[in-house]
Amino acid sequence: MNTVQIVEEITSRDTHKVWSSSCYIISIGQDRESILPLVEFLPEIIKKTSNLDMGGAFAPNQRFIDFAVKTIEFHRDNKKCPCCLYLDHGVDPKKELTKGNIIITNTTRIDGKWVDFYNVDCAKCNDKYKVIERESHYMWWEWSKA
Q1: Rounded to whole angstroms, what are the CA distances from 84 to 18, 21, 23, 70?
Q2: Are 99 and 87 in contact (CB under 8 A)?
Q3: What tens digit of pLDDT does each residue of 42-55 get?
């Protein structure tokens, strides 16, 4: 997706397109060069995503919009490493590994089978994290500073 496509979708008020583009923004949240062009559209994004019924059976889907906005605001307001965004939105460490954003230094398993947690280093700033793999109705990851 390019900037124009992202903005068109997230401001469309079509809840599926808004959700999908929000997830895309989150997925590129470590890539400052891709996020910065969205900053100028932030007021429009906030306006057009307000008061949408995003649904969500177990957790409100509004959280994806909120975090996409937070990601854009972070890049607008900070020069810090964006790895700190992991603390607020637990992305899949295996996906971040394939993007080259992190290094998984250790995986601790339960009974030698199930992942309990990962030890992770940011590939940019070397900050260290512990990422606990959680599962209930869906898989999610709890990130904390190590």
Answers
A1: 24, 21, 18, 12
A2: no
A3: 999 999 999 888 88
Contact criterion met (CB below 8 Å) for 93 and 102 = yes
Q: Report the alpha-carbon distance of residue 146 to residue 132 in Å, rounded.
A: 11
* 114: its two tokens: 């199930």
Q: Residue 91 in contact with residue 83, Cβ under 8 Å?
A: no
Q: Residue 133 and residue 33: Cα distance in Å, rounded? A: 29
CA distance 66 to 69: 5
What contacts 24+ positions apart, CB below 8 Å, involve 6-10? Answer: 6/38, 7/38, 7/41, 7/44, 7/45, 10/45, 10/48, 10/49, 10/65, 10/68
CB 22 within 8 A of CB 70: no
How buried is residue 55: exposed, middle or buried, by Cβ count under 10 Å (0-12/13-18/19+)?
A: exposed
Distance of CA 66 to the CA centre of its chain: 10
Res 139: pLDDT: 81
Structure tokens at 77: 């307001």
Taking only the tens place, the pLDDT of each residue in 89-98 is 889 999 999 9
